[in-house]
Amino acid sequence: MSTALQTERRLWQELAARGDVQGEQPQHTHTPWAVRCLMGAAGWLGALFFQLFLVGTVFVAARENAAAMVVTGLAMIALAALLYWRSSGIAAGQFALAVSLSGQGLAVYGMTQALGFTRVTDSAGFWMGLALFEAVLAWLVPNRLHRLLSGLGVWVGLAGAVHIVLAGGAWHEWLMLTWSLGWLVPVACALVTGFTLAEARLCAAGRHTVLEPLADATLLFALAVALVVTGMSHPLAWLADPEAGQLSAAHWIAGGLATLVLAGFALAECRRLAVGAAMQGGVLVGVIAFGALMAAAPAVVAGVLALGLALRRASMPWLGLGVATIAIGFIWYYTALHWTLLAKSATLAAAGVLLLAGRYWLLRSRTGREFA
Q1: Is CB count within 10 Å lower at the N or C end of the chain?
Q2: Per-residue pLDDT tens for 283-300?
Q3: 159 is a domain residue
């Protein structure tokens, strides 16, 4: 018997012993991964042939008609939603996903062509409209993977709108990505932290199924953007434009605000576990000190937060994302150009010493309580 089945049986027995459930454990079949891969490939293959037929008939005839492309794209999205509602098979789900993604691309492309591609894509309103469009799809289409991708689409739209507003047509617009995206790192971290702390209430209210994939998308976006801000910098930009000095502060702002979110989560966990005031103060001081040392590497701070959230939720995917982000964040921070090699080495060494000291203090505090 697999570990998953053993865990399910043990949990069912514990619930039955407490009187929360009755009867025998429901039996269900776990489809082998190889079968799932084959069925998923069959769904994408079917979608490929379907879209080739669509391109050869509708798209070629309507390539100059933006309105027809929009209508066709919306019809494809509606077809995908219907398939999701009426079927739960792997192949049908993957077919619907491919059709939906193609329909979204066709609808957005047709809309931009109708309104003027360059003029529309350079406006914040377009990107906000894209975010709203993806949010509606995330709410209406009942599929976890589709909701996750739609959630990423929401964040991409928001990032585009924020970047256009904050960049202001500057000559170094691509460098302004660190400035605009840096503000979104703590926002995404705060949202995913709030979801984790309120997860039990969301389950009781029946909203967990809709919001969990959106939380996954938010965490993915936060970690990816934190890595971009950590590794992307231009230390000499201020020589050509004094206003570009804000670029050098982008990673500090993102890392500092993410540290505040991490400190808030640590404090909430301490109160949930009902630890003493001295322990709470020590943990809070340690977290803030670590965040201050690694503020120039927001990816490391965001990765540590993801690690804590993963342990709070017992989520292996989040745990893997957090560990990978910490590792990549250290590397990108060490090879970035916005600080000297000596300063980066000193902060990394100090952060390591702080973590070891914190571990020793926590172990000693626990041992003292056990013998008290």
Answers
A1: C
A2: 899 899 998 888 888 999
A3: no
DSSP-assigned states of every residue in 254-308: HHHHHHHHHHHHHHHHHHHTT--HHHHHHHHHHHHHHHHHTTT-HHHHHHHHHHH
Give residues with Cβ within 8 angstroms of 18, minimum separation 6.
none
Strand, coil or helix: what is 158?
helix
In this structure, the number of other CB atoms found within 10 A of the CB of residue 57 comes to: 10
Q: Taking the C-alpha atoms of 344, 346, 352 and 353 in order, what is their torsion angle to the nearest 10 degrees?
A: -170
The answer to whether 80 and 97 are in contact (CB under 8 A) is yes
From first CA to last CA, the distance across the chain in angstroms is 43
Rounded to two decimals, the pTM is: 0.80
**Taking the alpha carbons of 90, 96, 97, 102 in that order, is the dihedral positive or negative?**
positive
The reply to whether 279 falls in a domain is yes
What residues have CB less than 8 Å from 362, skipping those under 6 apart?
none
How many CA atoms lie less than 13 Å away from 313 in the CB half-sphere? 27
Sign of CA dihedral 11, 13, 18, 22: positive
Contacts with 259 (C-beta within 8 Å, 6 or more apart), sequence order: 287, 288, 290, 291, 292, 295, 301
**Rounded CA separation 92/81 (Å):** 11
In a domain, 337, yes or no: yes
Q: 240 lies in a domain? A: yes
Confidence of residue 28 (pLDDT cuts 50, 70, 90): low
Task: Determine the residue type at 60.
Answer: V
Instruction: Give how many domains the chain has, as a whole number.
Output: 1
pLDDT in tens, 144-153: 888 998 999 9
Q: Are 12 and 25 in contact (CB under 8 A)?
A: yes
Domain hosting 239: range is 179-366
**CA-atom Rg of the chain in angstroms:** 24
